[in-house]
Design goal:
The protein is an alpha+beta fold. The protein has one domain: outer membrane lipoprotein receptor (LolB), chain A. It has helices at about 5-25, 30-35, 95-115, and strands spanning about 45-55, 60-70, 75-80, 85, 120-130, 135-145, 155-160, 165-175, 180-185, 185-190, 195-200, 205-219. The strands form two sheets. It has a seven-stranded antiparallel sheet, with helices on one face. A five-stranded antiparallel sheet has the order 5-6-7-8-9, covered by helices on one side. A hairpin with a 5-residue loop joins strand 11 and strand 12. The longest helix has 22 residues, at about 95-115. It starts with 6 loop residues before the first helix and ends with a strand.
Amino acid sequence: MKKTLSPILFSLFILLSCETEKKAAINDLPMQIAHAYGFDQLDDVQSISYTWNVRRDSATVMVRDWEWDLVKGEVSYSDADTSATYLLSEKTDQIKDIDHKFINDKYWLLYPFQLAWDKGFTTEITEDQTSPINSTPTTKLTVLYNNEDGYTPGDAYDVYVDENKIIKEWVFRKGNAAEGRAFTWENEKDFGGIKIALDHRMQNGEKIIWFTNVEVVKK
């Protein structure tokens, strides 16, 4: 006699399978990092605004202002010369350069969440690693993006996290090159449950990238 699962048992099996997959995802190191920075709070966020600052030389700082409405999927941008507002779902060639800047600046601001949002990468975990700048004991998560997604496919990041899954430093390796540039992640602040590292320094101690005017607006 052919045996079949009853509808109730089948539904229970599906539910348990989904719960197992969910727990496995949460226990994955990239997701642990995302949750350490407040990923579970993002559903309550309406918008995030910030000013991205980068030091080009001893006398020049480039400044870009952003507001990202996560609910509408709308991005507003301004700098010294121009401004624009566009929907992420309706990007045109005219705003491609601005959108490239948005992706770059957002990675610096919210990379822990990109580890949950992005899909086109592979990872490698190396325990008991010393961070390259401050020689901090860490776990190294190497993230290698595929050759298809984003504006700079094939790039790699070596992300150094402490025991609380907080990023201490990272190394960006363009095109998965053997060597890259190391930067710190520091001056971490909490914005209504969303943690953001505001400052990034190079090996010589110079603050090269930093964020000001950060505001997280809840729904």
